[in-house]
Structures are given as C-alpha cells and as structure tokens.
C-alpha cells in the first residue's frame, strides 16, 4: 500500500540523546516557542508531501517495470525523502517539550518522532544504503521464481498452484524451490539492513528498531506488546480446535507417512506458500454430514464471464451501494489489473494513492477466483479510506492505526455472503445455502480468518527478536521455523539450515513492511463488521449478515474513515463500534457455532502440537 503516511512513517524522533548529539549538535538558539513549533510543522508537512509524491511515483514505476534503472531511480528518490525526514526530525526534537503547544501541533510532533519504519543512521550515505538494500531485496522477490515439475514458475503462478495441486511431492518441490531461490539470496542484504536500522533507531533514542515500531500505537511499546498477546490468548482456543480438525483431515487424505495425526502440520499441505491461510484446502477438510458451501465462488465467477476489470467494478459497486462516490476515471486508466506478458512486476496486491489526493490505483496480477475476489474488496478498502481523509493535513493522511487500514476492506469482504451474491446476480436464489450449510460456510471462513491469526502475530515477533539481538543472523531461519511451530503448529516439509533465509520468502520481510497491522486487522474487521450489522438492523446469525446497500452504515463508516490519523485510534474505534477497547470477542461470536462443532469433531483426540 502506498500513501504519504506510509512513507512519512520513516519519520523519527531525533531525541536529545548523547549518541544523537555527537552527530547533530543543535545550535545554541533562543528557546523554541509554541508559535515557532506550529510554523515548523506546517513547513515540514509541505516538504514531506512534495518529496513523498516524488518517491511514490518512482516506487510505482519500479514495481511495474523492474530494471536496474528504475531501481536506481527509486532508491535515489527514497533516499532523498528519507534525508528530508531526518532533517525535519532533527528540528522537531527541539519543539517536542515546548510549553503551550496546541493539541494539533503536539500530536504531529509526536507522530514525527515515533512513526518511523525504516530508520537510517545519520552518517553520510547511510540513507542511500538503506534504500538500496530494500530496493534490491524487493527486486529479488519481484523477479523470483520457483519450479513445478522442474520447470520455472513465477511468483503469482506458484501461489495459485500451491492452492490447487494435491500431490505432496509437487507441493514440496514448489515450497522448497520458492524458499531457496527467493529467500536464501537476500540473507546478507537483510542482515545489513537490520544493522543499519538498529543503528538509526539507537540514534533516535530507542533500544532497537522493534521498540521503535511498537512506539507508534498511541500507547507505551510494552503495553502494546501485552495488548497483542492478550488478543491472541482470547482467540487461541478456537485456533487450536481448527488446527486439530484440519490435521485429522489431512491425515485421512495423505496418510501417516505424509501428515501424522499428531504434532504439527506440514506447511506445504495447507494450500498456501506460507501456511497463513488454509481456505484453498476446503475440499479436503469439508465436513461430512454437516453440509458444505452449496456453491463454488470461483466457478460462479468463471461461469458469469468475470474478468479482472469486472471483479474490480463489482468491488467498487459495493462501496457505491453504501453511498461512496465512484472511483476516479484515472483509477481505471492507471491501475495494473493483470500481470503483463512482456515483463516482471511485483505481483503482491497493493493499493496506492500516488498524489495523496485523487490519483488512486491498485496493482494486482488478478486471477479470476474467489481469493482475488476477496482481495479486490480488501485493496479497494484502502483506496476508499485514502480518499476519505484526503482533505486532512499531510501527517494525518493515514488510518487511525495501521490495523484500521487493513481491516476496512476485509470488513466489506465479510459481507460477501450468499445473500450478497444473490443481490449482485452471481448466485441464483434457489442455490442459497440453507441453515444446515452454516458449518461449511463458517469453516471456509475460519480456514482463512482464524488460521491466519498466529501467522499475523509471529512475523513481527520474529523481527522484534532479530532487532533486539536475541535472534542473531546464524539463527534467523531456525528461530523462524521454531516460531512457526510454536505459534502455528506448522513445520517445513524438509529440514532447513542456517544457510537458508526462509523469512525472505514472505514479501513483507524484504519490503520491510510491519506485519502486526494484519493481526490487528483480523481482530478489528470483526468488530467493525458486527457494528455495521447492528447499524443495518440485521437480526439473523452474524455470519449471514450483509449490509450491502445500507446507506446508514456508509455514513457512519465514512465518518470514521474521514478522521484519518487525526485522533488516537480508540477515538476512531469508538466512533464506529461504540467501544474504545479492541477485542477478539466479536470474532469469537462470529465463529461460535463452528467452535462448538469443532469440539465435537475433535472429541477423543489429543489436540495441540
């Protein structure tokens, strides 16, 4: 996702620490005033907006045309932007504790001091080095290939095949080839990046880059870490039941020699390269005697002649039904909807606002299937959020927190229920699943939403350990494998060594994108969804709710989105849900019927791993 605040997130506090003072001695000037602070913030925002737009355009071109030249241009623009941020952060430090600051100025100074994602040391050339490392690693990922039956296969194609192939030998081949050819080569670059980021973070007064990341949630970093752990513990029992049931079904499918009926699950059998979402193996785990979905969304899309553009138009129509204005014409002219035949691009789906105003775009190598139908709604959620707050001042051009931004589109996607499919003409009404199909509907959702939870948590847990030094470079992959086993109950299909760098095979590691936002979003989306269904007056089971076409929901949603990052995130949460506490209770209520059913299915089994 590309927006001003995601770039301004590089902004940091240049605190008055001894390490910082040695490099940047602040001149002995008259004591700063609240009035001077307000002027500084206004000037800094204008400069950051200009350089953000320049860097954003360069990044868009690079993501769509991966060459040495575009890599150099992107690195140069990013480094220039980073240097401007550092310069402004130096000045911001002088105003942080000035008496008499108004609320707006104080909040913006705090954001400039704590919103860093990729801190660079202040030494000459360090910003260039950091930018080059991230750009190079993204290039390795974007051009990455695996193999299937010994033949090269691109990143987007191998992801699709991981969800459809059922031969365990071929699944192993794809998993190993992708991790070896994409992840392993970037280990050296990533190790350098960690060192530079930590050096930059320490100059800013933080213990390490992980502590810096955790500082950006309107609360103490340790409190935030405890919050995420509390949320995980609320939802962990449901995940353990889902894991136990899924493992049993995989054992029935493949036998003890491939997947035993105890212990962890083999990662490549779960229908996804990273074992983060399991919905692609629904055909294997579909419940007998409890009904199934009653329809196949991928088949419906194909039968109704959907292509990439029509899928995106359908997503736009959902937001239009809530009262949102249509996307600008430039969106359709400038977005990338399908993978080009003549070049490699970064296929990872993303939403962009190039000018932080109206130049909204998405970038997807769209496939006509159920997964990408959901992804389209997710990415458009970013775009509509971006447009809702585009009148705010530059530092507020963001979600209430990064989990909010990820949750909005997924909340919409939760409303892609059978009733909604009927309303848009995809599903005949006489094919709407009856109540006895609810377990199938919920299981399919859980294989996506519940299965993701520990993965969403462990990515940054691993990085926090890398940043604080408790996971040294020689232990990168061992710690990754251990965390995936401990949190997910998932293990690789073959033994991994210290020469490998399996984390690099996940886009968000080389791109240096914080991941806890996704964990938060999977919690928040259910809170948002439950609140929307209440606003719409829905009376049936929560998982059957669709608020498609409800203008009251749209008005309330737009009011929250328009707040951007102008207020602490509990304020935004309260505005839409009526509570200031993020909680996993809405998710548990959504899946309550499934939770009871899973316990019955697992009766007599030894769950856990």
Adjacency order of strands in the biggest sheet: 1-2
Question: Which structural class best describes the helix and strand composition?
Answer: mainly alpha
Low-pLDDT parts are 1-28
Rg of Cα set: 24 Å
How does the major sheet shape up? 2 strands, antiparallel
Give me the count of strands: 6
Counted by DSSP, the helix tally is: 25
Anisotropy-based shape:
globular
| β-sheet strand percentage | under 5%
In whole angstroms, how far apart are the ends? Answer: 35 Å
**Please, what is the average pLDDT?**
90
Which bin fits the share of residues in helices?
55-70%
Descriptive keywords:
57% helix, 3% strand, 25 helices, mainly alpha, two-stranded parallel ribbon, two-stranded antiparallel sheet, globular, disordered N terminus, 609 residues, single chain
Folded structure, characterized:
With 609 residues, the protein is mainly α. Among the domains are: 4-138 and 190-219, no CATH class; 297-432 and 516-578, no CATH class. Helix content is 57%, strand content 3%. The protein is built from 25 helices and 6 strands. The strands form 3 sheets. A two-stranded antiparallel ribbon has the order 1-2. Strands 3-6 form a two-stranded parallel sheet. Helix 3 (34-64) packs antiparallel against helix 4 (68-93). 52% of the residues are buried.
């Amino acid at each position: 996702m590309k927006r001003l605040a995601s770039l301004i997130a590089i902004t940091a506090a240049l605190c008055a620490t001894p390490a910082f003072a040695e490099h940047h001695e602040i001149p002995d000037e008259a004591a700063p005033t609240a009035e001077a602070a307000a002027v500084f913030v206004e000037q800094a925002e204008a400069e950051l907006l200009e350089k953000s737009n320049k860097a954003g355009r360069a990044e868009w071109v690079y993501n769509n045309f991966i060459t040495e030249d575009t890599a150099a241009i992107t690195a140069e623009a990013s480094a220039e932007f980073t240097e401007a941020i550092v310069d402004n952060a130096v000045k911001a430090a002088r105003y942080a504790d000035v008496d008499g600051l108004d609320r707006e100025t104080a909040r913006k100074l705090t954001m400039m001091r704590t919103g860093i994602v990729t801190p660079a040391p202040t030494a000459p050339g360090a910003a260039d080095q950091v930018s080059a490392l991230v750009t190079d690693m993204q290039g390795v990922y974007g051009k990455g290939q695996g193999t299937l039956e010994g033949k090269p296969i691109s990143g987007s194609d191998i992801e699709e095949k991981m969800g459809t192939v059922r031969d365990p030998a071929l699944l192993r081949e794809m998993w190993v080839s992708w991790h070896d050819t994409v992840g392993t080569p970037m280990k050296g670059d990533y190790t350098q990046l960690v060192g530079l980021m930590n050096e930059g973070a320490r100059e800013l007064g933080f213990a390490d880059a992980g502590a810096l990341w955790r500082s950006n949630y309107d609360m103490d970093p340790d409190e935030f870490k405890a919050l995420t752990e509390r949320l995980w513990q609320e939802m962990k029992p449901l995940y353990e039941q889902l894991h136990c049931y899924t493992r049993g079904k995989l054992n029935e499918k493949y036998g003890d020699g491939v997947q035993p009926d105890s212990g962890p699950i083999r990662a490549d059998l779960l229908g996804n390269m990273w074992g983060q979402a399991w919905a692609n193996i629904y055909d294997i785990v579909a419940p007998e005697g409890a009904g199934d979905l009653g329809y196949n969304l991928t088949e419906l899309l194909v039968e109704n002649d959907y292509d990439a553009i029509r899928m995106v138009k359908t997503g736009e129509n959902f937001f239009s039904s809530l009262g949102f204005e249509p996307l600008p014409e430039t969106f359709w002219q400038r977005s990338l909807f399908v993978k080009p035949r003549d070049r490699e691009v970064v296929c990872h789906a993303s939403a962009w606002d190039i000018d932080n105003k109206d130049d909204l775009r998405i970038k997807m190598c769209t496939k006509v299937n159920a997964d990408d139908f959901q992804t389209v709604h997710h990415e458009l959620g970013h775009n509509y959020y971006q447009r809702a707050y585009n009148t705010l001042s530059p530092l507020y051009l963001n979600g209430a927190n990064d989990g909010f931004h990820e949750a909005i589109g997924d909340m919409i996607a939760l409303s892609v229920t059978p009733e909604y499919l009927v309303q848009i003409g995809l599903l005949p009404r006489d094919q709407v699943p009856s109540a006895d199909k609810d377990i199938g509907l919920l299981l399919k959702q859980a294989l996506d939403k519940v299965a993701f939870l520990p993965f969403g948590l462990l990515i940054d847990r691993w990085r926090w350990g890398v940043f604080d030094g408790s996971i040294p470079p020689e232990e990168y992959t061992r710690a990754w494998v251990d965390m995936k086993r401990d949190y997910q109950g998932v293990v690789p299909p073959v033994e991994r060594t210290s020469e490998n760098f399996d984390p690099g095979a996940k886009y968000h590691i080389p791109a240096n994108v914080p991941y806890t936002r996704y964990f938060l979003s999977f919690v928040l989306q259910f809170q948002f969804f439950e609140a929307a269904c209440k606003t719409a007056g829905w009376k049936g089971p929560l998982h059957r709710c669709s608020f498609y076409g409800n203008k009251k929901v749209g008005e309330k949603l737009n009011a929250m989105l328009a707040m951007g990052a102008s207020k602490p995130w509990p304020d935004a949460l309260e505005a839409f849900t009526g509570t200031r506490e993020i909680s996993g209770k809405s998710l548990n209520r959504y899946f309550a019927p499934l939770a009871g059913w899973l316990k019955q299915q697992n009766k007599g089994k030894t769950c856990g791993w």
